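Supplementary Methods. Inverse-folding protocol.

Structures were first reduced to a discrete structure-token string of length 129. This string, shown here, constituted the complete conditioning input.
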């Protein structure tokens, strides 16, 4: 587990030496802030990186599947509005994400020599070329 973006390259290098071909980048402040370095190191060591955050794919990881955070932020505004109008937060229902998105970075797939099946591409909410 990395403690700073400076450790990404060494960790991914060890993955490559161990024969690992893919990894999951959990969403955290560390991976978020170092996402460009993480994606560059993943490509350098020919590793397919996946995440739950679209911005990780936009930075160069292979794909993501996770909640649409913009939709969550918009929905949270309704909670703030209700609370400001006097609702007791304890009376408000807990909601889970209801909108998920699949993003695929074809540029990264090509750089890794991967062919994404047409059926998966058809299901993607967004394909980055």
């Amino acid at each position: 587990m990395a403690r700073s973006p400076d450790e990404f390259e060494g960790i991914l290098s060890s993955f490559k030496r161990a024969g690992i071909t893919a990894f999951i980048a959990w969403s955290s402040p560390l991976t978020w802030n170092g996402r460009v370095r993480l994606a560059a190191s993943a490509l350098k060591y020919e590793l397919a990186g996946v995440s739950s955050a679209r911005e990780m794919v936009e930075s160069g990881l292979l794909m993501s599947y996770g909640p649409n955070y913009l939709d969550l932020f918009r929905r949270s505004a309704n909670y703030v509005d209700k609370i400001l109008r006097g609702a007791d937060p304890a009376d408000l229902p807990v909601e889970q994400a209801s909108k998920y998105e699949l993003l695929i970075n074809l540029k990264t797939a090509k750089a890794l020599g991967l062919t994404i099946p047409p059926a998966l591409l058809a299901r993607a909410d967004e394909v980055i070329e």
